[in-house]
Amino acid sequence: MKNKLLFVTLTILFIIFSICTVIGYTQCVKNKDLNNNPNKTETNNIIFEYYLEDERVDQLPRQDSTITPSDNTEEKKYIFKRYNCTNNITGKFNENKWEFETNGKDGLCKLYFVNAKYEITFNVINGIQDEKNVTTIERETDGSFKMIPNEGFEFESVICANNKEATWDESTSTINISAITSDIACTVNFEKKELIINIDVINGKGTTTEKVLYGDAKSIVIEPNLGYNNPKIQCTNNQNATYDNQSLIFDKLTNNTTCTINFYKIVIPVYNVTIENIEDFASSTDIKISNGINKVNKVNKGESFIFTITRLTDKIVNLNCGDVIPQESIIENGINKYEFLNINNDVTCNIEIK
Which residues make Cβ contacts (< 8 Å) with residue 10, sequence separation at least 6? Predict the structure, then answer.
């Protein structure tokens, strides 16, 4: 009886040992398979592949979130976007556990992730970007970035990497980019403004429109009509110009402007050359004075006055003009020529015969 009980006990122990051995071996093989294929799950034979921004990565992107102190909100580093599985495997991604839950079939699942935020950088030529501009932005949101051109410069172009479209809003001086889904680097170029000078010439002639770059000097030929000069110049938008040597001169243009240059008629002083006693010789038999000479003769400033006296006898003729001494020359026998050059004041003379 005892021997029979002992036999039964040993038999039961052998069966239990055998079962445990088989289970242990199976588990060992399973663990070995998992070690060789870390993307396999322990519950089924699904192999996972991970992609970040459509680029294959070695392991599941780790969701390291941070807390924004200003509003105590959680900022995530990555976003799960989609999956693609073989063998009609379906499932969903558990954001809280940060794992993919499936229907338990065997196969291959590709999990796709994207960054939650992207970096935005600008290279600004002839200007700067506003220091308040954000440098990172959430995925698939629009961005507006303020630019500050240097004085006298205006927007020319914006070119972003990967052919990302960006637009310029003149009213707000901003670069606008829509639906941002990657890091973006853009070059913004400002160039010197092209300014317009409109010119209205009165009593003269010259160019009516000129173009000049901001800050540059400009000289424009303007000629007054004959008998006109002494121009008066007026320009809009606080621009200044001078006139010299038949040129309208701008030292520095900082705005569009319209200038009016008005030439005024030259007023020439007129002086009198007076021959006090010319009437005494109107019917003289001693001398004859050249035609057109009057007692009072009008002469413009700077001009010359010339007349002749013809001696009809042997008497000596003298022209006394006080401190003014005319140039006297003998044209031929008996004819004296008197020249007053560059008249600058009134002259009074008397004819003397001896």
Answer: none
